[in-house]
Amino acid sequence: MIAGALLSIVAATGCKESRWTPMGSAELVLSEMKLRGAPAVSRRLDSDENFGRTVMDGIATGDSVWLEVAAKLTPASSAAEASLSIALASALNHAPTRVLKVLGDKYPVEEVCGMPFLRADSAAVVGYYDSATASLQKIAADSLQSMRVECRAALDDAKERRLERINPSYLIKNKPVAPPRRVRRSVTKPKQTVTAPDSGSSD
Prior knowledge:
The chain is 61% helix and 0% strand. By secondary structure, the chain is mostly helical. Mean pLDDT is 81; it is low at 1-22.
């Protein structure tokens, strides 16, 4: 299936197709960018389904060369933009540092870290959230700490919104229960007995 998806790239470069072609497919895309320009290759994401699928699958692995491809691409349509966000979100689990370095104006943090999946059940949402947040904890570069915090915030927000949309009862069941408030009992003072004056006494 992967080899079939690479037919368009192989034909363009004149290379012989083989089972090892996928290993060098990112380099082929970069070469095509040098020959035809990044805008032309970016438009090909929409016009060539096999090419687009290969690029998205490659970026999703978190491979450094594929993420270089992502950095050079500029999505020409909303569909390509959404697909690239999904691919980068998948790559976040494998190479969080490299992914955060790619994010910015072209690939906003809130989009990539906002779980941009088309379909997902509650188990998939929780599973991705757990793995992505664990990956973010591995980032040590000081220059990426603010972006890491921003990405984590987007993950937290996306998790709550998606779970509420998929299964509102999930949030109710898993919402932390606040400890019961202690009611302070007011101490009632004993009533003072007022003694009436003795009217029967005389001077």
